[in-house]
């Protein structure tokens, strides 16, 4: 096993110029190749199932992604999983899909996640409800991935909500976006990725292995 593997329970101090106190940001800013994995969420309210799955990933991953109703299927929430992982000392990535929440709920969730110690967020548009096991659900899509990135950046860097109302304590979030480099048209993918970076993405995640 690599000797420079980060201890999932180690407490890190914030560094000057860093957006967050999280380990994922530190790994990426030191130039190391970061490995993350999605935690398959349980169909259960038992936190023990989350910790069992996290133990499998913790020694080989720099951060663990908590998926947000991936494929439009119901599971334990990303917020719930991240809360459990953060309390146990794991580096978690909060996935937020725009499919199920409007901008009011999303901004509240961002503050709640930051208050629980979550330092990483992955901004996603989300799969359509027709892909999942409850196709009769009503989709929201008040925001998309790009406007969600702008929302988190505004809250973090400008200490305000989208309405303009000031935040007393902004969320210290390392902001991420997703990219799929294997889907044509390739030129569109590159332009779309550029828009995400301009909107506020600090890091990009690709799903290289399924």
Would you write up a description of this structure?
Strands 1-2-3-4-5-6 form a six-stranded parallel beta sheet. The N terminus is likely disordered. Strand 2, helix 3 and strand 3 form a beta-alpha-beta unit. It is an alpha/beta fold and 210 residues long. The radius of gyration is 17 Å and the shape is globular. Helix content is 33%, strand content 14%. The chain has a single domain, classed as TIM Barrel (Alpha-Beta Barrel), CATH 3.20.20. The protein is built from six helices and six strands; from the N terminus they run H-E-H-E-H-E-H-E-H-E-H-E.
Give the CATH architecture.
Alpha-Beta Barrel
Compute the average pLDDT: 88
Contiguous uncertain segments of 5+ residues: 1-12
How much is the radius of gyration in Å?
A: 17 Å
Distinct helical segment count? 6
Shape: globular
Please write the CATH class name.
Alpha Beta
H/E topology pattern? HEHEHEHEHEHE
Helical fraction: 25-40%
Largest sheet: 6 strands, parallel
Any idea how many domains? 1
How many β strands by DSSP? 6
Distance between termini? 23 Å
Look up the CATH topology. TIM Barrel
Strand order of the largest sheet: 1-2-3-4-5-6
Q: What structural category arises from helix and sheet content?
A: alpha/beta
């Amino acid at each position: 096993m690599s000797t420079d593997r980060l201890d999932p329970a180690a407490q890190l101090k914030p560094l000057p110029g860093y957006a967050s106190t999280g380990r994922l940001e530190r790994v990426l800013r030191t130039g190391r190749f970061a490995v993350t994995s999605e935690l398959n969420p349980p169909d259960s309210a038992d936190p023990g199932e989350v910790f069992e799955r996290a133990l499998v990933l913790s020694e080989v991953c720099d951060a663990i992604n908590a998926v947000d109703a991936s494929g439009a299927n119901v599971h334990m929430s990303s917020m719930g999983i991240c809360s459990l992982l953060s309390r146990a000392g794991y580096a978690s990535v909060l996935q937020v899909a725009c499919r199920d929440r409007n901008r009011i709920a999303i901004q509240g969730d961002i503050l709640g996640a930051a208050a629980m110690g979550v330092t990483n967020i992955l901004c996603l548009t989300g799969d359509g409800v027709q892909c999942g096991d409850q196709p009769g659900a009503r989709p929201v899509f008040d925001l998309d991935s790009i406007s969600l990135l702008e929302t988190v950046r505004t809250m973090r860097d400008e200490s305000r909500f989208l309405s303009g109302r000031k935040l007393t304590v902004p969320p210290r979030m390392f902001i991420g976006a997703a990219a799929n480099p294997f889907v044509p048209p390739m030129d569109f993918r590159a332009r779309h990725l550029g828009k995400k970076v301009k909107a506020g993405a600090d890091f990009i995640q690709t799903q290289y292995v399924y």
